[in-house]
Specification:
CATH class of the largest domain in chain C: Alpha Beta
Number of strands of chain C: 20
Protein name (chain C): Maltose/maltodextrin transport ATP-binding protein MalK
GO molecular function, one term (chain C): ATP hydrolysis activity
Order of helices and strands of chain A: HEEHHHHHHHHHHH
Bound molecules: adenosine-5'-diphosphate, magnesium ion
Radius of gyration of chain C: 24 Å
Shape of chain C: elongated
Distance between the termini of chain A: 38 Å
Radius of gyration of chain A: 23 Å
CATH architecture of the largest domain in chain A: Orthogonal Bundle
Chains: A mainly alpha (about 290), B mainly alpha (about 280), C alpha+beta (about 350)
Organism (chain C): Rubellimicrobium mesophilum DSM 19309
Structural class of chain A: mainly alpha
Strand content of chain A: under 5%
Shape of chain A: globular
Number of domains of chain C: 2
Keywords (chain C): ATP-binding, Cell inner membrane, Cell membrane, Hydrolase, Membrane, Nucleotide-binding, Transport
Largest sheet of chain A: 2 strands, antiparallel
Distance between the termini of chain C: 40 Å
CATH architecture of the largest domain in chain C: 3-Layer(aba) Sandwich
Helix content of chain A: over 70%
Oligomer: heterotrimer
CATH class of the largest domain in chain A: Mainly Alpha
Structural class of chain C: alpha+beta
Helix content of chain C: 10-25%
CATH topology of the largest domain in chain C: Rossmann fold
Strand order of the largest sheet of chain C: 6-7-8-3-9-10
Family (chain C): Belongs to the ABC transporter superfamily.
CATH superfamily of the largest domain in chain A: MetI-like
CATH topology of the largest domain in chain A: MetI-like fold
Largest sheet of chain C: 6 strands, mixed
Chain lengths: ~290, ~280, ~350
């Protein structure tokens, strides 16, 4: 191929222009912002008001704790569920395959606002359908929006409902790239299906599952709409306040851009660190 | 023989005993969205468990329309999603093409920059984006603000780069030897061959734009420029509009996507899994 | 119509030199074939002529005009690719006319050229089909047709037949030869198959690792290779090579044969005791006693094709030897045969592969 720098940049120009203006510059600018005290004009260089404040701000620590809690509980549950779903949906014994897949995959296309609205309505404490069902089954109804633990559980359920199918799709495509003869050979060797799953499927799926974990970590670190809309701005009393919501509040309610930028960089750094940690834990051991 | 087929039978029963109820639970929120949207308000909160649709959708929607001008927000959403998708496809496929077709100075750097942002949380850029567009440019609640900043996405480039690199390079060399201009090679040879990929990408981009919430929430607070999700979001948790009316909005946002999903499932799947294959 | 001239042409991909200075004159109307093992730089050289690769150093001229900085489309060349490179979303007709249409060629002229190409290649009935609906041979014709339509001064072919099965390959080979006869245009043709080279070329350029080993007419290369590489590459089955040692005075001993000696006019310049390699083509062996030096062989595999037979055999020292013999029908695997080397048909190379005689 001939070297054609001019032509190449001709094709790249519009994209790179948008990239430079709306991404590169903001990334640099927000880093600079994260050192500025922005509560009053003029903005001044005072990292103590941003980075320094992070460690001592109980609201930030609360949001961090909540986010990590969701991360530790929700991500493993969802990935495990998605893996099982993918394997079951891939089974040759399955009837009504199209309908089954639709049930789990359809949430992928549902917008955050629409599903937040439905969940909020379904889980209404007083005569919401979930509580009606619980009572009909003889169980106590749950005060989903004023009990901190229940509210957190609600967020976890909602996110799992929305994203399990998405991850199952990815894992399913990984499954389908495993050649059938591997399983045929194992069957001839009298390896039971459960053992086939544990010792053949799971190891072969490891890279795909890791990919899903990393995606989910990045997503969870930015969780915003669910606590914003479902549990009414992180309620009750900040019990479901996430880092994303905290950032939104600082940036766009209080308009403290400097502090919010420091939070944003903290989120990015945590996402990178946790993702790398996952990749390291799940690495191929020679 | 019998033990073998009976084992198979019980395995099949077990499979459906697990998946069936789970599938019903998974379908419930979508079904209830539909049911709620057709109920009178007192039906939603009646003491009975109501699982079947009633006939109130139109009345509920009229309430929503009267309170929020929802049709206008739907119109904004459609325009934004269409234009964003079209432009984004053009930009990302041009960029993907350049990365595959040409050797040029800075190629490595450009590639690394673009894909380095794949895993970058959006929150890192949203604050300066907002400051720039809303304050410095003074473009709050404009089409420009809704459409242009979200145009950048690495996934599209990744996707198109993948598609173009699967095509034999000799094809483009052949056109080049024939004197076809590079832009024409791109539009007349490469793009038509990438149609399935373009379709998948278009669906994913449209969906992302249609459901986008945070950026329109920040940048378009003017009622005439609100997108439908933002407008609907303002109603949740306040008693200005009834829940049944809100649900009609949710249905209008969701149903078209569900229909597209049913008919173009293949493209959705390849769009979602594209990121997973490097 | 135009010839092609290469002067000191070099190519480097980054730090890696691929073409190490090639000088060549392709005459107007000549059919020149680049042949060499895969990876030796044939395609790279051809793509430089086409303008698809930059020339790192040296000069390429087409029709007397230096084209180093001329766009591929303006060089008066047309290229046929190994993968055919047909546009899958266009019909055969659209494939043929695409380049002309994109360059604003008058419609009437485009149609005339397409019709002419279709006539020459007999693909008229295929014009409305998509490439997917064509057989390999038909695709190949369309690819060639797309080159013809350009009415180029030089045709460039990059292994155009390598994706075809054996029978079609022979057929298309004849077709390309006929095309050259009909058009009389300069053609540069790349292949790793020496049979194609021998049958098609006016002149063959043998390449190895980015260098020209020898240029010449097919039979000249066969009769008079300048080194062991060319000798081994041209001719099929390939030439046999036997370890040898000079005895001085024009005599050479085959070391693998435990002292069999042969007088070659050759060896005169060689000091006694110097190592050498003796080459003899499979088709040049004679019956035992009739040549100048007998060889005792153990047959490994015998292939009897009727008109001729191939014996895959070993010398005492285990050197593999292929013998082509019309009269060896009785030879069997595991059996012994004796053959003889006529001194006049033998070649001698020094240990570096250079031809001595
Ligand atoms: N674009 C390229 N970048 C780096 N090396 C290349 C490139 N194209 C070819 N080469 C190298 O140049 C050598 C010659 O390649 P090529 O001309 O394709 O050989 P041939 O056609 O004779 O089989 C090979 O070693 C190949 O690896
Ligand atoms: Mg080649």
């Amino acid at each position: 191929m001939r070297r054609r720098t001019g032509t190449a940049y001709g094709f790249l120009a519009p994209y790179l222009l948008i990239f430079a203006v709306f991404w590169v510059w903001p990334i640099v600018y927000s880093f600079w912002l994260s050192f500025l005290a922005t509560r009053q004009l003029p903005w001044t260089f005072r990292p103590a008001m941003t980075w320094g404040r992070l460690a001592v701000d109980p609201a930030f620590v609360n949001a961090l704790k909540n986010t990590l809690l969701i991360l530790v509980v929700q991500v493993p549950i969802m990935i495990a569920l998605a893996t099982v779903l993918a394997v079951l949906l891939n089974s040759s014994l399955l009837r009504a395959r199209g309908l089954m897949r639709f049930a789990f995959f359809a949430p992928v296309v549902v917008g955050e606002v629409a599903y937040a609205a439905v969940f909020r309505l379904m889980f209404t404490a007083d005569r919401g359908i979930v509580n009606k069902v619980l009572e009909a089954a003889g169980l106590p109804s749950v005060d989903w929006f004023s009990n901190p633990t229940a509210a957190m559980a609600l967020i976890i359920m909602a996110v799992t409902w929305r994203w399990a199918g998405y991850n199952a799709i990815i894992i399913l495509s990984g499954l389908q790239s495993i050649p059938d003869d591997v399983y045929e050979a194992a069957t001839l060797d009298r390896v039971t299906p459960l053992r086939q799953f544990l010792f053949i499927t799971l190891p072969l799926l490891r890279p795909v599952i890791l990919f899903c974990v990393v995606l989910s970590v990045i997503g969870t670190m930015q969780l915003f709409t669910e606590p914003f809309l479902i549990t009414n701005r992180g309620g009750p009393g900040g019990a479901t306040e996430t880092l994303g919501l905290f950032l939104y509040r600082q940036g766009f309610t209080v308009l403290n851009f400097g502090y919010a930028s420091a939070v944003a960089y903290t989120i990015a750094a945590l996402a990178v660190v946790i993702s790398l940690l996952n990749l390291w834990l799940g690495r191929e051991r020679a | 023989m019998t033990s073998r087929s009976s084992r198979r039978f019980w395995r099949q029963v077990g499979l459906h005993a697990v998946l069936g109820p789970l599938a019903l639970i998974w379908l419930l929120p979508l079904w209830m969205m539909l049911v709620f949207s057709t109920m009178p308000e007192n039906g939603i909160f009646s003491p009975d468990i109501e699982l079947l649709p009633k006939g109130q959708f139109w009345a509920n929607f009229q309430e929503l329309q009267a309170e929020t001008g929802f049709l206008r927000t739907l119109f904004v959403s459609v325009v934004v999603a269409l234009v964003t998708t079209g432009l984004s496809i053009l930009l990302t496929s041009m960029a993907g093409w350049a990365l595959v077709r040409y050797r040029f100075r800075g190629r490595w750097l450009v590639t690394a920059l673009i894909f380095g942002t794949l895993t970058l949380p959006y929150f890192v850029v949203v604050i300066p984006q907002f400051i720039m567009v809303a304050r410095d440019m003074g473009l709050q609640s404009t089409w420009f603000a809704l459409i242009v900043p979200p145009l950048f996405n690495s996934l599209g480039v990744l996707f198109m780069r993948q598609a173009f690199s699967m095509m034999p390079g000799e094809l483009f060399d052949a056109a080049q030897v024939e004197g076809v201009k590079e832009w024409q090679i791109f539009t007349r040879v490469a793009l038509p061959m990438a149609k399935p990929t373009l379709a998948a990408l278009a669906i994913i981009l449209f969906l992302a734009s249609w459901n986008n919430y945070l950026w329109p929430l920040l940048i378009a607070s003017d009622p005439t420029m609100m997108t439908a999700p933002v407008a609907l979001g303002t109603l949740i948790g306040f008693t200005r509009v009834s829940w049944a009316a809100i649900m009609t909005g949710a249905v209008l946002l969701t149903l078209p996507m569900i229909v597209v999903f049913i008919f173009l499932q293949r493209f959705f799947m390849s769009g979602i899994t594209a990121g997973a294959v490097k | 119509m135009a010839g092609v001239t290469l002067r000191g042409v070099r190519k480097a991909f980054g730090p890696l030199q691929t073409i190490h200075g090639v000088d060549l004159d392709v005459g107007d109307g000549e059919f020149v074939v680049f042949v060499g093992p895969s990876g030796c730089g044939k395609s790279t050289l051809l793509r430089m002529i086409a303008g698809l690769e930059d020339v790192t150093a040296g000069e390429i001229a087409i029709g007397g005009r230096v084209v180093n900085d001329v766009e591929p489309a303006d060089r008066g060349t047309a290229m046929v690719f190994q993968s055919y490179a047909l546009y899958p979303h266009m019909t055969v007709g659209q494939n043929l006319s695409f380049g002309l249409r994109m360059n604003g060629n008058p419609t009437a002229d485009t149609e005339r050229r397409v019709a002419e190409a279709a006539r020459i290649l007999q693909i008229g009935p295929l014009l409305d089909r998509r490439p997917k609906a064509l057989s390999g041979g038909q695709r190949q014709r369309v690819a060639i047709g797309r080159a013809i339509v350009r009415e180029p001064e030089v045709f460039l072919f990059d292994e155009p037949l390598s994706n075809l099965d054996a029978e079609l390959r022979v057929q298309m080979r004849v077709e390309i030869a006929r095309l050259h006869g009909e058009l009389g245009t300069t053609m540069v043709y790349v292949t790793h198959d020496q049979t194609e080279a021998m049958t098609l070329a006016d002149r063959i350029v043998v390449l190895r690792a980015g260098r020209v080993e020898q240029v010449g007419r097919p039979l000249d290369l066969y009769d008079d290779p300048v080194n062991q590489f060319v000798a081994g590459f041209i001719g099929s089955p390939r030439m046999n090579f036997l370890a040898a040692e000079s005895l001085g005075g024009g005599r050479v001993r085959l070391t693998g044969q435990g002292g069999v000696e042969i007088a070659l006019p050759v060896g005169r310049g060689l000091a006694a005791g110097q190592k050498a390699v003796l080459g003899i083509r499979p088709e040049h062996f004679e019956a035992a006693g009739q040549g100048d030096c007998d060889l005792a062989l153990v047959v490994d595999v015998a292939e009897h094709l009727g008109a001729t037979s191939y014996l895959y055999a070993n010398t005492k020292a285990g050197e593999p030897v292929v013998v082509q013999a019309g009269a060896a029908r009785s030879a069997q695997a595991g059996g012994r045969v004796a053959v003889s080397i006529p001194a006049g048909r033998a070649y001698l190379f020094d240990p570096d592969g250079l031809r001595l005689a």
